[in-house]
């Protein structure tokens, strides 16, 4: 499979190592100084694009993939206000698009555990809850995309929380997400349920970026040749 990497930073390089070890060919490494490679004549040479850039640039890069008729796997976080627009354009233009706030298999299993725990806690108002995410200091967005996914899953089930805030909160209806930036931290996410009697805590800790990169390559292999809007849940059949 011919891959165009859009964003050749920490994730782009980790993805290249895994993709080439699996026998794929990286035909473009697109970064700030090689923006001309986003044009259709170049990008169109790839079977699939993998986009890990910045919250400010993901949207226009995805549109370039649509224009070049190349399915795109997107891992960039912090741009979700534009997700409805991207989904609409994807369908209008008959393109392939797969976004995940976290590509690691472990986190996607953790998402399923989080949903089930929230379902059980929905009828147990004696438990309050709080979330925490820890990442390296170069991270641009807060809370993390993964934390937002976890919070949305919880809010769908636990009616005593009406929304999330990215700070400590004394308002019982607010789900507090605390963001910490410490080096080195590839990504740790925790959901704490606390009561006067006991606590239940679930945590996923990434030991490196390998899980995110391996998941992104699996997603690209799966998306190759497909049209439509997908997530990691489709890839892993969860
Ligand atoms: N969904 C997931 O599983 C994961 C998502 N991420 C997200 O991926 C994104 C990138 O993360 P890292 O690689 O760690 O960041 P990074 O800062 O190491 O790399 C980003 C790269 O994008 C480049 N870039 C900036 N604007 C660009 C443009 N217009 N076109 C092409 N390249 C451009 C930068 O020069 C830089 O090399 C972040 O939003 C992060 O939150 C990170 C890890 C896992
Ligand atoms: O920026 C990162 O590094 C990560 N970003 C993703 C997020 O925002 O959830 C996924 C992972 O936690 C690493």
From TrEMBL:
Pathway terms, separated by semicolons: Amino-acid biosynthesis; L-lysine biosynthesis via DAP pathway; (S)-tetrahydrodipicolinate from L-aspartate: step 4/4
Annotated GO MF terms: 4-hydroxy-tetrahydrodipicolinate reductase; NAD binding; NADP binding; oxidoreductase activity, acting on CH or CH2 groups, NAD or NADP as acceptor
Enzyme Commission numbers on file: 1.17.1.8
Keywords: Amino-acid biosynthesis, Cytoplasm, Diaminopimelate biosynthesis, Lysine biosynthesis, NAD, NADP, Oxidoreductase
Record-listed NADP(+) binding positions: 40
Domain of life: Bacteria
InterPro entries, sorted: DapB_C, DapB_N, DHDPR_bac, NAD(P)-bd_dom_sf
Binding site for NAD(+): 39, 75-77, 100-103
Biological processes annotated in GO: diaminopimelate biosynthetic process; lysine biosynthetic process via diaminopimelate
Main localization (coarse): cytoplasm
Reaction it catalyzes: (S)-2,3,4,5-tetrahydrodipicolinate + NAD(+) + H2O = (2S,4S)-4-hydroxy-2,3,4,5-tetrahydrodipicolinate + NADH + H(+); (S)-2,3,4,5-tetrahydrodipicolinate + NADP(+) + H2O = (2S,4S)-4-hydroxy-2,3,4,5-tetrahydrodipicolinate + NADPH + H(+)
Top-level EC class: oxidoreductase
Chain sites annotated for binding (S)-2,3,4,5-tetrahydrodipicolinate: 136, 145-146
Localization per record: Cytoplasm
Cellular component terms per the entry's GO annotation: cytosol
Assembly and binders: Homotetramer.
Record's protein name: 4-hydroxy-tetrahydrodipicolinate reductase
Organism ancestry: Bacteria, Pseudomonadati, Bacteroidota, Chitinophagia, Chitinophagales
